[in-house]
Amino acid sequence: MGDYNSTVKKEGAVVGYFEDNSQPSTSVDDCASQIISFIDVYAYTNSEMTALTLMVNLERNLDNNGDSVDRALFPRHCNAAFDIREAIDFPFPLCERIPTDFACQKFLEDPRANTKVFWCRNVLHFIEWANATQDLGNFTRHEKMLLIAENFLATACLTSFYAFLRIQREAVETAEEGTVPPPCSPEWFAEFSKLAPDAQEWVNRVIVEVLEPMDSLDISMEELVLMKYIIFFNGNEPSKVRSISDVHRIRCYRLKYCQLLQKYIKRHVADPNKRIHRISELLRIIESVRAVSYSLDKWLTMFFTSDVCGMKDVLVYDFHVRAWNEVPVDTSTASTWNTHPPQWTSFGFQPLNLQ
Question: 100: exposed, middle or buried (C-beta count within 10 Å: 0-12, 13-18, 19+)?
């Protein structure tokens, strides 16, 4: 994946990952100041860490891991028979808010039986989070949909990998010594490795490039949520559906969260060299997560095409098959959708219609 220590050459510099060949300014502060984020509301009173606390609380609330109900009794109902626009407007038909750790545990135990409910739970978590992200409200409805469609999988991979590691650590801490595999062991993914011919190779890559670095760094929830925003605000190439100005605004919002990540690490790591090293490693993880998510996206496309694990649904098509960068903005339908949201008459599974 390369050496990110050379990328983050000095604190406050926008080089390599942050901004390629930026002219005339190479300052995170200068680039991030070109837009107004909800973080700035707290920055004015010198309390940016309060904004970060709100982000962490949101993530924990959406995880719902504190639910006291017997998790074994949670229903397995899930539904993806509606399109992405409807899901953004009202995501709750997807599934119930099953505790994230419980959904991850069940997926690891039997991925074939639980792939769909696990996927739906991730989509629900992601869309609830995106709808609660105030900065996303500064984009057009179409651009918001593009960001959600294009960056769901990488964002969900980051949070799922973090949850897998958390489950593994807790299991080791609570079990008798030697009765469960150590964290980051391939044994944790033994069942998943049977899903596809190259699944074992993918698992090994995830362990080496993501889980082991996460475990070694002991990433905090604060760092995780900021990495999540950095992954999400990604739209680097102008296209039929994204202008140069949109690309620039997305980049500026990403820099806002990069800036806050730097400030958070600066508060907790005294040594400047160690700070640079930590940021470098976090960026390496971000790039690794995005890279491994591409392979997973291909599998999910195959799952849709072959209806593996019952995945041949409209919402799966929208996230993993449809080429959004080739679909121009339809302003007539967009304006109608804005003023007349879809009518929710039925959430049962319907025959697939992709016309």
Answer: buried
Q: Domain limits of the chain? A: 81-327
Identify whether the C-beta of residue 311 lies closer than 8 Å to the C-beta of residue 79.
no
Cβ–Cβ < 8 Å for 28, 261: no
Looking at residue 308, its amino acid is: V
Instruction: Please give the C-alpha separations between residue 56 and each of 50, 162, 222, in angstroms, as whole numbers.
Output: 10, 14, 6
Question: For residue 167, what are the contacts with CB-CB under 8 A and spacing of at least 6?
Answer: 101, 104, 105, 108
Percent of the chain with pLDDT over 70: 78
pTM of the model: 0.84
pLDDT digits (tens, 9 = 90+) for 315-330: 999 999 998 766 555 4
φ/ψ (deg, to 5) at 66: -85, 5
d(CA 280, CA 6): 8
Q: Which of 56, 62, 35 has the alpha carbon at shortest distance from 246?
A: 35
DSSP 183: T
Inter-CA distances, 46 with 29, 36, 135, 228, Å: 15, 15, 19, 23
Three-state secondary structure call for residue 137? helix
Reference 350, options 93, 123, 32; nearest CA is 93
Contacts of 222 (CB under 8 A, 6+ apart): 52, 55, 56, 264
CATH class of 81-327: mainly alpha
Tokens coding 288: 């690794």
Identity at 242, one-letter amino acid code: R
Query: Tell me, what DSSP letter sits at residue 27?
Result: B
Do residues 27 and 9 lie in contact, with contact meaning Cβ atoms separated by under 8 Å?
no
pLDDT of 296 higher than 60:
yes
Report the distance separating Cα 154 and Cα 333, nearest Å. 29
Rounded to an integer, what distance in angstroms lies between the CA atom of residue 295 and that of residue 161?
15
Structure tokens of 43?
């920055």
Residue whose structure tokens are 């996230």:
319
Q: How far is CA 255 from the centre of its chain?
A: 17
Residue 174's region, left for phi above 0, alpha for psi from -120 to 50, else beta, is: alpha
